[in-house]
Sequence to fold (470 residues):
Amino acid sequence: MKIEQIYTGCIAQAAYYLESNGEAAIFDPLREVQPYIDRALKDNAKIKYIFETHFHADFVSGHIDLAKKTGASIVYGPTAQPEFDATIATDGQEFKVGSYTIKAIHTPGHTLESTCYLLIQEDGSIHGIITGDTLFIGDVGRPDLAQALTEDLTQDVLASHLFDSLRNKILPLPDDITVYPSHGAGSACGKNMSKETTDTLGNQKKVNYALRADMTKEEFIAELLDGLGAPPAYFPQNVMLNIQGYQSLDTIIEKGQTAFSAQEFMAKANTTDAIILDVRHENDFVKEHIPGSIFIGLNGTFAPWVGALIRDVNQQLLLVTPEGKETEAITRLARVGFDASLGYLKGGIEAWKEAGYEIDSIASISPEAFADGLATDEKTVVDSRKPGEFDGGHVIGAVNIPLDFVNEQLNEVPKDEEFYLHCAGGYRSVIMSSILKARGYHNMINVEKGFGGIKDTSVKTTLIQPACSS
Fold:
């Protein structure tokens, strides 16, 4: 069977391309669809179907644009009610792609419409299963992301459905088939995903906590719901875009590629409610940036952090980008539904300075200077990592204010005294510094390289320090 995983690391998402005898199918495509069209052209194949495993919450699918450009049919599983033309498959319905058969298996639990797709070869044997967010490598889908959780449809009810789907629909399948999930480690759609992005079903039965043979439904529900954090605020908005439809990505890119002079950029910032979003490298932002701008760099997990921190996908954005990265920034924003990019600063920060406008910077020190400073003063240390990272080792006495919750925990940030701020490697602490500065806090000192650099110094942490070699 010819099937390829197309993995996008920055949002930990996997789409799939399947081809046979000049016909092709795409599963869970991203917003930018040209790569799928190009892949089919390489095989001289026509895209016949676009299979969706469910209404995604963490990204906007490319199903509508891809269908318009190729004439392919969009397929959802039972109970789905999209507001555009689509085939709603019945449980067990089969679709032919060349000599291969795709069989829809309704697996409610992550959402009510969640559906897996069996990949059946010409001889009738099962090659694998595309599991969407029903089954991951090392985990299963969280049951709290349905668009309309109600008194009758709670996360406990969905977790119960997921237990039944896994036990009755997936676990009876042959151990040697390949599991092809929609996400890997780093996705907010699960809590324990592996960095591996495929595996055999048989091995998952051995190592996946949610597939233990001796697990009762009550135990499954309790373990699945334990430790689930609040989903990012943009998730429900993405679900609605996937249900209702959206503007073509081509239109979004064309609008967002408007190049503003420094004067025009300043005027737009003053006459709209747009946020100035700086997507350069954190080191460049630390040195100089437009006052009040928010940093979220393209070199990190860009789109998820935009969604987690800006929250409203309709928020207008003015972009400061590295030269030549304008389209990439607009595209990656659109992946998570942020379609309101107004344009970018032509000539970047240099043009801003040449126009005579004010710039700002962030006080930043090396881990070694942090160690020296901590030994001679009593400044508060704020750790912006996630609680699990903090629990795994931290500077003794540090305060944990995760970047995800900086808005909710703003009152815990020292207001009237200098404090040190760090994350794991230096990316998140600069994001947090930019948000704090935009809110009037200018008393933080960023620690470069984060905890990764700090733990190699003399600073006392809850980690066991390595012994010095003679």
About this structure: The longest helix spans residues 155-170. Confidence is low (pLDDT under 50) at residues 466-470.
